[in-house]
Amino acid sequence: MTSEAYLPAWALVQQLKRGETTSRALLERMLERVARVNPGINAIILQDAPRARAAADAADAALGRGEPMGALHGLPMTVKETNNVAGWPTTFGDPAFRDEVPTRSAEIIRRLEAAGAVIFGKTNVPINALDWQSYNAIHGTTRNPWNPAHSPGGSSGGSAAALAAGLTPLELGSDAGGSIRIPAAFCGVYGHKPTPGQVPGEGNGRGSLLDNDLVTSGPLARSVKDLALALDVLAGPAGERAKAWRLQLPHARATQAREFRVALLETSPVAEVAEEYRAAIRALGEKLRGMGAQVSLNVLPFSDHAAHHAAYVQLLRGSGVARLPEPAFQAAIAETEQAASNATPYVRQMAAAYAQRHRAWLQAEEYRAGLKRDWAGFFEEFDVLVAPAAMGPAFPLDEARPREERTLRINGRDADYNDTLFWAGIATLPSLPATTAPIGFSAAGLPLGVQVLGPAWEDRTTLAFAAVLEALLPFSPPPGYA
Length: 482
Prior knowledge:
Elements: H1 9-18, H2 23-37, E1 44-47, H3 49-64, E2 76-80, H4 107-114, E3 118-123, E4 135-136, E5 140-141, H5 157-164, E6 170-175, H6 181-187, E7 190-193, E8 216-221, H7 224-234, E9 261-264, H8 275-290, E10 294-297, H9 305-318, H10 326-337, H11 345-355, H12 358-381, E11 384-388, E12 407-410, E13 413-416, H13 421-428, E14 434-441, E15 447-453, H14 459-472
Parallel strand pairs: 2-3, 9-10, 9-11
Antiparallel strand pairs: 1-3, 4-5, 6-8, 7-8, 7-14, 11-15, 12-13, 14-15
Helix pairs in contact: 2-3, 5-6, 7-14, 9-11, 9-12, 9-13, 10-11
C-alpha cells in the first residue's frame, strides 16, 4: 500500500475533487512531515505556512461553493528557489542576492496558482544554479535521501530530494546543464526538460531581458502522469506571443513498448560512463527487445562527440558573459591570451566561451542549426533515444574543491567532473525534449536513471516512453522514508 506521503499529485487532486480530503488537511500533513524529515536532508529551505494555509482554505471554500476546479486545485507543492514568487526571496543561493524579493511572481508560478496549486515553500539550489551539488552559503547543503553522504544533483537538487523524501508531490525546476535531468536520476524520481519555447520564462529572469533558448523550466514528480499533468498547466505562449499563438503538442507516436523504435546510447568518448550504469542500460535494451521494441545500440546523428561538446560549452557559457563581472571577464581574456596554461581543458573552454568573438558565436550557432536538421532526420528512423543522464549514479558530496577542480572516479580512473556536461548538452544543444526515468540501482543502492530524448515539440512521445519504463520500475521510496 502506498504511504500517504508518496501518493502522486494526480491521485491527491482526485481525492480533493471527490471530497475525500481537504487542501488544508493535505497541507498540514505535508508541513508536519517537512518538520520531521526535512532537517535530515535540507531540501526545503523556505516555508510560508500562513500564506499557504490561507490559500488552502480559499481552495476548500471555492470547492464548497461548487466553483470550477483547476487542474491542481488545492494541491500543496513546492518550487525551486530560483523561481520568482512575489514576497519571497529569490537568492540563487548567492549572498549578494540575499535581500532580493520580487514583487511579482513569474508567469509559470502564476499559472500554477491559477490552476489551484498551493505553493508552501521553496527548495534548495547551488550558488547561481551552477552545480550538480546543491549547497550554498545562505541555506547550506542538501543531501540525497538515498545516501546523505551523496549529492542529490543540481541545480534542482532540493526539488528532487524533496520528492524522493515524500515532502512534496510535485516540483518545478529548470534545466540548461542537466539541472532537471541529473537530480531526477540521482534521486530516483521523474523529470521533464521540455522543448525550449514551450514553457515561458517571463518574470523569472535575473539581470537580463534577453531570451536564452538553452534554458527551460519544467516539472519533476514521482510519476510520469504527474509530469504530463504539470506540463499541461505550464506550457503555452505568454506575453505578446499569447495574442497570436496557441500551443498544440502532437500526440505521442506510440504508447506500447512494441510500437517504439529505440536508439540506445551507453557511453561517449568525451564523458565515459560507469560500467555498472552501462550494463543497466544494455539490460534495459534487452528487456525492451523482449517486449517487442526495435532497439539499436550506440547510434547517433553525429559522430564527433568532442565537436558537439565544444559547441555546447561555447554557447552555454558564452550566453552568460553579459552578466559576468568585469574582473572575471578580463581574467577570461587573459587566460585565452596565455601561450601556456595550467588550467584544465574545461576552464580553458569556459574562458574561450567568455572571450569569444561574435563570428565564433555565429559559427557555433551554424553548427547547432545543422545539428537540429540532422536530429530531425534521425527521428524519422527512430522515435526516441535513451541515454545516460550523467557519468554515473549520485557521487559523494565534495565541497572542499571548486567545481573546476573536481574529479569523479569512473571505472577506476579520475574523470573531469565537468565532462558530465556532455550528457546535459546532448538534448540541450539541439533543443530537444528529454524525460528522465529510473531504470534500477547501483551496487551501492543508489538510483540509476536515463534520459529519453525525442523529436522537437514531441514531448508527449518522450513522456509516453518514460511511462513504459515506469511500468517496468515504478518509483520506490528510499529506505526508511516510506
